[in-house]
Amino acid sequence: MANKLDISLHEASLSIVRRCGADLCEIIDSKFGCVATIEGVENESRTSYLQPPATIKPERRYEFTMRSGVKVSVWKADLTSFLADAVVNAANEDLNHCGGLALALSKAGGPQIQMESADYIRKHGKLQTGEAVALGPGSLPCRKIIHAVGPYLPPNPPKYDISKAKPFLEKAIKSILDKVDKFHLVTVAIPAISSGLFNYPLPECAHTIEMERACNWIFGSQQKQTYSN
Q: Are 75 and 229 in contact (CB under 8 A)?
C-alpha cells in the first residue's frame, strides 16, 4: 500500500476494538477501501483476521514419492490453516471471493486478500478459465495464495460436458505449477478445483488433477512437495 498510519488505542477505543475488531476491519474496508490490521489486542469478536481458528486437525491419508523425487500427499485438512509455501484457491474469473473455499480463505486471511485481488483485476482484467495468479496471503500462514480458475459445469453434468471441461482443468493445474516454479515454492496445497460449487464430479476431478500434476513434474524433473486436500 502507498500509505500506512499507525493508531494507538486507549481506554474506550481499546474496549471497542477488542469486542468488534473484525467488524470494524470490514467496515473500514467497505467504506474507505483501506486495510486495517489490529496488533497486540486480543480479539473477542466473531472473527479474528490475525489468528484464524483451525477447524480441522490435519490428517494425512496417503503419501508416495515419484521417481523424480516429488512427494505427493493426500490430506484431510483446513486450507485456512494448512502449513505450506502456497495454498491454492478455487477462484472465479473476477477473483470475487464470495463463496466456498474462496470466501473461507478471504475471511481467514483478512480484507487485504480481496483488495489485492480486486486491484489485480482492475489492472489486468478478468482471468480466463485455466489461468492462475499468485498473490499475497494476507494473514494466512503461507507465502502465496495461488488463485486458479477451473471450468464450470452445470449440475449433474453429462460425460460429454466433463470431457470438454477436462482440458481446462488440466490447464489450471499446469498454471498453478508454473506459479510454483516462478516463485520458487517448495510445498503447495491443491484442493479439488472445480468440484463443489463448479459441479465437476469429485472422482474425475481428483483423477485429472493427479494425472496432470504427475505428468508435469515427471517431465519437468521438479523437486517439490505437493498436497491434495
A: yes
- 109: nearest Cα among 143, 76, 133: 143
1 burial via Cβ count (<10 Å: 0-12, 13-18, 19+): exposed
Give DSSP secondary structure letters for 22-33: HHHHHHHHHHH-
Question: Cell for 68?
Answer: 523424480
Say how far apart CA 86 and CA 158 lie, in whole Å: 33
What does the pLDDT look like over 10-38, one tens digit per residue?
Answer: 666 666 666 666 666 766 665 566 777 66
pTM: 0.70
**Under a CB-based contact definition with an 8 Å cutoff, are residues 99 and 197 in contact?**
yes
Other CB atoms within 10 Å distance of the CB of residue 214:
15
User: Which domains can be identified in the chain, with CATH numbers?
Assistant: 1-51 (no CATH), 59-228 (3.40.220.10)
Question: 41-63, pLDDT tens digit by residue?
Answer: 555 444 444 444 445 677 777 77
